[in-house]
Amino acid sequence: MTTTRLPLLKEDKPKKKMSRKITAILLLLFTALLAVIFFRSSISHITVIDFQGSKYSTSEELLSQSGIKIGGQFFAVSTKDVEESLLKLKTIKDVSVQKDFPGVITVKIEEFPAVAYELEQGGLLKAILSSGAAVPVNETGIAVEKPILTNWDPEDPNKAKLCQALASIPNELTSDISEIVPSPTLSFPDRIKLYTRSRFEVITAISLLKSKVSYLNQIIETEQPGLIKMLEADSYVPFQVVSDEEDVAQE
Question: Where would one find the signal peptide in this protein (predicted)?
Fold first, then answer.
């Protein structure tokens, strides 16, 4: 008698691939849900914007130029983009942006220094920075050792060159200069006149100022007030002093 063996029934194996796929989808959905909750919460927003080192730009101007604002997305802020935007301002020489979670952005600003001042027709006093930018003088006050620029056209390229020249000269060498006016000639388109607090009148050129300023200070320290020329050659002529007797004789 022959016996017939029935095939064994295979046990159902768990569908590992399908379960892993479902798990991955659930994890993605859970992560997405957490991300939505996080980015909608106040912890992901900008809560503090601290501008440090700015004297010549208002917070409103800096905020507008930087593109950041209170309540904006903290993680959407690119420090590099903010720095590049702020450097477009003619008042700012250097800037660094730091982000501190949660929500704090610190902007450290280095501005171009003031090298002179200018009084506009309406009586508004402006500081002239080494970049050539003119900014209103606010509560920071003025530095008395800086010269006043008079009769300068705002579009005159020599004005910006003068500011650069002044910025490259140590303060102690320019502290006696009280006023600078343009005085161009065909030979010297960048010729200027300087008036000092010690009552000297000086004729020179912007392109020569840095190299000639030491001679100027030597004359001021050793001679009586007079006319100093510092162009191709240097010269000094004292102002003629009229005595009281001569005044009486002329009368």
Answer: none
Distance CA 123, CA 2 (A): 124
Say what the alpha-carbon torsion angle 167, 172, 175, 180 is, to the nearest 10 degrees: -40
Segment 12-61, tens digit of pLDDT? 555 556 677 777 776 777 676 655 655 556 677 888 999 999 888 888 99
Q: Which residues contact 189 (CB under 8 A, 6 or more apart)?
A: 158
Q: What is the pLDDT of residues 87-122, one digit of tens each?
A: 999 999 999 999 998 889 999 999 999 999 988 777
Give the C-alpha separation, 218 to 213, whole Å. 9
Q: 13: which 2 tokens?
A: 């194996």
Indicate yes or no: pTM above 0.70.
yes
Sign of the torsion angle spanned by Cα atoms 100, 103, 104, 107: positive
Q: Give the tokens for residue 238.
A: 């004292």
Question: Could you tell me if 103 and 45 are in contact, meaning their C-beta atoms sit under 8 angstroms apart?
Answer: yes
